[in-house]
Amino acid sequence: MTVLLLMLACGEHPSTQDSLLEADTRPESCDSAPPVTWANWADGFFSSYCRACHSSGTAERYGAPEGVDFDTLADVIQWRERIQVRTLEAEDMPVGGGVYDEDLELLQVWLECELVD
Ligand code: HEC
Q1: CA distance 67 to 42
Q2: Cβ–Cβ contacts within 10 Å for residue 38, how many?
Q3: How far is residue 81's CA from residue 86's CA, in Å, rounded to a whole number?
Q4: Could you report the per-residue pLDDT of 97-117, keeping only the tens digit for each?
Q5: 20 in ligand 1 pocket by Cβ < 6 Å?
Q6: What integer pLDDT is reported at residue 102 of this predicted model?
């Protein structure tokens, strides 16, 4: 019986990450935005554009500071403000640019709609 209750309790809260937006704090614009998540998009984005330099597993960081890694969702949450500034505002990360406009738009959506402070 205890086990069943624990399972039910978990079922109500499939994610224990406090980083995911609560329904009532989510901007209304997110309702019509593409449903981008870490799993279906952002993980791949950071792999394609950032982890050549920003990964704990990379052999050559090309000057990217130690510890500024985007391997996991937790890493990215820690750096979200700076990612916003460097990739979407200053547009000087990744070094050399080259991010497709569509990916910039999806990054904006993802930061606004899936992540929260
Ligand atoms: C070719 C290597 C390279 C790639 C690819 C790269 N970076 Fe960097 N990154 C650097 C270097 C070098 C620095 C340190 C110098 C600086 O801050 O400009 C840095 C620093 C940073 C910092 C920490 C400094 C700060 O402003 O807080 C962030 C955040 C960052 N990069 C984000 C990104 C993101 C997001 C991507 C992918 C969209 C990315 N970088 C891709 C090389 C890279």
Answers
A1: 19
A2: 20
A3: 9
A4: 999 999 999 999 999 998 754
A5: no
A6: 97
Residue 82 CA: nearest ligand 1 atom is 29
Give distance in angstroms: CA of 49 to centre of ligand 1: 10
How far apart (Å, rounded) are the C-alpha atoms in residues 79 and 70?
A: 8
Task: Please count the CA atoms within 13 angstroms of the CA of 113 that sit on its side-chain side.
Answer: 19
For the Cβ of 41 lying below 6 angstroms from any atom of ligand 1, the answer is no
Share of the chain above pLDDT 70, in %: 77
Q: How far is the CA of 61 from the centre of ligand 1 (A)?
A: 10
CB 18 within 8 A of CB 88: no
79 lines ligand 1 (CB under 6 A): yes
Evaluate: CB of 98 within 6 angstroms of ligand 1.
no
Write down the pLDDT at residue 22.
Answer: 62
